[in-house]
TrEMBL record:
The chain crosses the membrane at residues 17-40, 60-79, 100-122, 152-174, 181-200, 232-254. The lineage of its organism: Bacteria, Bacillati, Bacillota, Bacilli, Bacillales. Keywords: Membrane, Transmembrane, Transmembrane helix. The keyword Transmembrane applies. This is ABC transporter permease. It comes from the Bacteria.
């Protein structure tokens, strides 16, 4: 299986689209950081906060994660390359797990610009703000409370795990739908719906309660220092269980699928 991971990693990183995605997250992270710094220090009007929030990781990674799944998985169905490892004797579970490992590794690479600017921001003696709009690493960057180095590391690692869990759904969609356009559209609509539920929790009480058992819960989107260690462990546990369930569903989908 290690050879499969190496092969998929090599194939995906050789794709121009991957490097376009990395450039997108890099420039978006820099833009988000600059706007948050400008608003926090009153050098930029708060009215531009919508642009800054649009560039934030919570919005960017929704598209980036879905596109990454398409170049890693859907492209193999399009080119019929999905046949090669099966003919070579690899079990379907090995193919699913190998692609998932590569997907998670590359997701960390793609979100790393946001992690870097967040670390830089936390190390500066400056105020960052996005006019009250904050989610993901942006919510960590705009923290008004201070904490220890260990606390910052913990919430950033937890946020990364939340992203991995959320975007693992893209793997399931890619194996189920197989078409790039459908995968991107489906996940984007899902994330928009979950975002609306998180924004208007009182209006979607039943759905919000259901999402509380998933990484899409509102409290996991805005992780901050006010969360206790128990809450952090709960978030990580839910994410791990969610990943296992989604991976099982992905394997079952792929195992029963007829490959042409």
């Amino acid at each position: 299986m290690f050879n499969l991971v190496r092969a998929y990693l090599y194939k995906t990183t050789k794709s121009k689209i991957f490097w376009v995605l990395l450039a997108l997250t890099t420039f978006s992270a820099i833009g988000m950081f600059s706007i948050a710094y400008g608003i926090g220090n009153n050098s930029i009007n708060e009215s531009i906060s919508n642009v800054g929030f649009l560039l934030s990781d919570m919005n960017t990674m929704t598209i980036v994660g879905a596109v990454l799944a398409t170049i890693l998985i859907c492209s193999d169905f399009d080119t019929k390359n999905i046949h090669h490892p099966i003919i070579s004797g690899f079990a379907r579970i090995q193919i699913v797990v190998s692609k998932a490992i590569v997907f998670w590794i590359l997701l960390i690479v793609l979100v790393s610009p946001y992690i870097i600017v967040t670390i830089i921001g936390l190390s500066m003696d400056s105020t960052f703000s996005m006019g009250g709009k904050a989610a993901g690493y942006l919510s960590i960057l705009t923290l008004t409370t201070t904490g220890s180095f260990g606390e910052y590391v913990t919430i950033m690692i937890t946020m990364a795990i939340v992203y991995l869990a959320q975007l693992t759904v893209c793997i399931l969609l890619a194996f189920a739908l197989r078409k790039s356009v459908l995968v991107v559209a489906a996940y984007y609509m899902m994330s928009m719906f979950f975002g609306q539920v998180a924004s208007f929790q009182n209006s979607f009480e039943i759905m919000n309660k259901i999402l509380s058992f998933t990484p899409y819960a509102a409290e996991y989107i805005t992780i901050n220092l006010s969360m206790s260690k128990g809450d952090m462990m709960s978030a990580i546990s839910i994410c791990v269980i969610f990943i296992i369930v989604v991976m099982y569903l992905t394997f079952m989908t792929f195992r029963k699928a007829e490959i042409r």
